[in-house]
Amino acid sequence: MVLTELHPVSVKRLPEELGERKMREFLLEIDSCVDLNRPRIVLDCSRVREIDGNVIHLLLHCLEEAMKRNGDVKLAALPPEGSEFLQITGVSRLFDIYETTAEAVNSFSHFPPPAVVPALVVQATQRGSERAA
């Protein structure tokens, strides 16, 4: 079994408004967080006044960059209107969303169940069917 080093969870607070300059600054911050193996990022959305196309683009960019490195991005403290908009657009299905930043950070400490290797499952079922014959 190969153990990978777990890095601390990075918490980034989205700015209240995302103009072009703020968007570039935030993307640079995110790029520095994902520049490692298995990044774990929580995006605190508590200050966001409105979730629009720019914010969704930003969220998806963060998720894409983290996933390229086998990491994950979780959202926290979404305003109710923002949560609705993410559900309407279908983007909410891509993220784990938490009420508070602390809940999102703590969720990274729960390890997912071990992955089952498909080849092993096939071999086990073949052996079982050979015994039955």
Can you put this structure into words, describing what you see?
With 133 residues, this protein is α/β, with parallel strands linked by helices. It has one domain: STAS domain (Transcription Regulator spoIIAA, 2-Layer Sandwich), CATH 3.30.750. It contains 5 helices and 4 strands. It has helices at 20-33, 53-68, 80-89, 101-107, 118-132, and strands at residues 10-13, 40-44, 72-76, 96-98. The radius of gyration is 19 Å and the shape is globular. It starts with 9 loop residues before the first strand and ends with a helix.
Report strand order across the widest sheet.
1-2-3-4
- Helix/strand/pairing category: alpha/beta
Tell me, briefly, the overall form: globular
pLDDT < 50 stretches: 113-127
* CATH architecture field: 2-Layer Sandwich
Oligomer: single chain
Query: What string gives the helices and strands in order?
Result: EHEHEHEHH
Level-1 CATH class name: Alpha Beta
Mean pLDDT: 82
What is the straight-line distance between the termini? 34 Å
Q: What is the CATH topology?
A: Transcription Regulator spoIIAA
Q: How many domains comprise the coordinates?
A: 1
| CATH homologous superfamily (4th level) name | STAS domain
Number of helices: 5
**Main β-sheet: number of strands, strand sense, barrel status?**
4 strands, parallel
* Beta strand %: 5-15%
- Helix % is 40-55%
> Nearest-angstrom radius of gyration?
19 Å
Number of strands: 4
